[in-house]
Fold this sequence. Notes:
Chain B is of the alpha/beta class.
Amino acid sequence: MEEQERTETIPQEKFIIEGCREGEAEQMARPHIGYVRDAWRRFRKNKVALIAFIILCILVFLTIFGPSISGYAFEEMDKTARNQGPSAAHWFGTDKLGRDLFARVWQGGRVSMLIGLTGALVSSVIGCIYGGIAAYFGGIVDDVMMRIVEILISVPYLIVVILLSVVLQSKSIGTLILALTLTGWCGVARLVRAQMLQIKSQEFVMAANCLGVSSRRIILRHLLPNTISVVIVTITFDIPGYIFSEAFLSYIGLGVQAPDTSWGALASLAQANFTFYPYQLFFPSLMIALTMLAFTLMGDGLRDALDPRLRT
Amino acid sequence: MTQADEHLLEVEHLRVSFHTYAGEVKAVRDVSFFLDEGETLAFVGESGCGKSVTSKALMRLLKPPVARIDEGSRISFCGEDVLRMDKKRLRALRGAEISMIFQDPMTSLNPTMTCGKQIMETLMLHRGMDKAAARKEAIRMLETVRIPDAEKRVDQYPHQMSGGMRQRVMIAIALACNPKILIADEPTTALDVTIQAQILELLQNLREELHTAVILVTHDLGVVANFADRIQVMYAGQIVERGTVREIFREAKHPYTWALLRSVPKLAKETKQELYTLKGTPPDLILPLAHCPFAARCEYCMPICRERMPEETSLSGTHGVCCHLQHPMAPKVEGFTTMQGGSAGG
Amino acid sequence: MADCLVEVRDLCKYFPVAGKKTLKAVDHVSFTIEKGQTLGIVGESGCGKTTCGRTLIGLYPKTSGEILFAGQDVTELAGKERLRFKKRAQMIFQDPYSSLDPRMTIAEIVAEGLQVHTNLSRKERQERAAEELLAVGLTRDYLNRFAHELSGGQRQRVGIARALAVEPEFIVCDEPISALDVSIQAQIVNLLIRLQKERGLTYLFISHDLSMVRHISDYVGIMYLGALVEYGTGAQVFSEALHPYTKALISAIPDPDPDSGHEEKKIRLSGEVPSPVDPPPGCRFAPRCAFACEACHAQMPAWEHAGEGRYVACHRWKEIKEKGV
């Protein structure tokens, strides 16, 4: 009965064999998504990393504009308002010389961020070049270069910093960055080398070799672009390391010198009166902790977002 | 033939979807089948047709939230609803009652444990054996899968073995608890031809000895001809044709099955003759597909095929096909079977 | 042979391994390939067929022997000469997933060789890439896609287009189909055959799949543990195999007929390919061979002439042939 109905409703010309059309089964159903857009989409899905990213944006904004928002200059002293708690006039309170802490925290943030960013960037660039050369040429070149790295890594950086400040007779930010990056690139170099060795063994590098592509171009066009995501992630994990190192050095008095300041220096200054004025220690410490946490969480999200193999 | 309600495994309206950035990928679209004790069922189809996903769904191996078994699906094993099992019951099911072997034996064995330990672990966990008894049983299992010098091999690590040996160890682990069902997902694809033949023969002998039901997942129809009892041809997440081996090889009715049969590699008489090919690639399962999924690649495509989804036509108790060519108004076409050799109609 | 494009004489490629041993991946292999023809090399994994192809194309330095390309030894080339050889000889790779750079678009991948070998502008290169893609059956829509957006078969076709773009005469196809579905394998083989007819290409086709090799090859060489064991035209080798190993390989092809009953007559090899580090003395196949006698275990068989254009390395091939086993 039902069969009968079907026969009636479908016209006979629907049952003429016409075969498949050329190219019909090769059409792409999914829209084309560029690499950056795709990575951003995956990053956005990781809520924790997204929040970390937003916190970082706020922190960066405040380190840039913070000192001018409060209406006080960071080195301006006010004898009448010493050691005041947070109030409408001084949002984070003042220190023992009557300087506005809000302005000082963000001024210090500038130095901390600057050291963190340049430190990580410089060591990544050096590490990339060094690791890339070692991996591409391999053999004895690789062996010698990696032994050098191992020796450098075994030198404690505290000794390097003290020696440098003695030799250069200065304790400027430049010296600090130099001291920190002098051995800091070694980790990146190792990582880049390992990653590149893995990529080098892939067939697409072999194919480029077959085509007669030059070594320089293979490194620039194939090896580097495929390591860049690893490097970006390393940078984000390295930045909090540098910020912390700077804070630590400033805390023990080897870092930034007055009147300039940093989060570490602020914390160092505040610890003497910690029991009476805990807020003086609280704000710089909070910023150090927040920055480190945010960078680490964002690095996690970036690592997942930049991996082209994870496409869900 | 057993009664309908006594099947070892029964799957009804199984639907599995993956939630990805581009939308919902419907990997398995309303698949129903059953498996009886001691029987071998083969899932055949190209990569991405949902055959592996179906077999993984049977053991609930798919990871939520990306993969989801949709509402209305039912999987019953010995009358028990697999989809409603709690974690504890599921653990007992996996390995002890249904077990699985995979394509790549290197990645599915633990490289830091000796092969013997890996078999013993399963035995101690599921069969409650003590160490000495488990070791003895492990050696016996290795002998069962025809590994020479089992006493010595039991203490070796996977990397000390060749690909074929590792696959044998995988089979030994899978069979350690005497499961009722063994799922073999492309068990020979990663192996060399001569080793492939050995493993297939081993699986066949073991099945007869142990009376285990086997689900064989493969893209190569040539492999199943002498191995399976029944075959299900899958395409775009659906079963397009099902039948006994003879029905599929001799009386296939779906153009896709014909195409698969024709692409089975054979030793040709002539050199450099054009081989038969299936044009294009399978459809992206992100598409809704309201019509026959094979239409775009089908030599016998009719206007109706681009408009409606065909329903299953039952040709015998075991043979069913989803194709508009079965409609009474459709023209009669000669298909392709292995009987006719290389000449295909059309 | 006047039209001989590739000639390999006594090629050896050894790799040092831990413990001062050597892995003899390719051991005294000799063959020739005529212009416009295909030599198929068949063997199980670890038999050295891939190493053989890579050494031939210059990816690995040889240990000893000669590789003549159009009469010229190409193993010692440097600079411009070497670049010219690379334009004439290309390679297609096994793994369609790792052989395309995941960070490059299809257009960039296909045009890469053009940048090295021609002076075309960026736009012209793009045009040529589109032409080559069309030749392998892919439309312009694919130009700006990335490799991961394509299926396995489509990726393999991109790999072919990349090799074709520099207009080579000789292509080493290193297991181009073994990672693909059976239904897609035929697409690639047909494409290779068509391109050979249209452009007069010469192929070295490496595979472990006898039935596909049979389709594409004029000549076939069977390799076992670093050495050739049999060589002849496709028809000769497949209809009348001389070496026991070849016979075993042929009978290992699964039979697509459920009622054939061939299963019982099949020769099943026991054991697996031994390690090419320290291979057994004598015939390398002897430990797995059903016909092995004392001589086989003691002495390496010679590379014997066995009729018109045929060679075999087996002590007992004449006996086996006469008895008709």
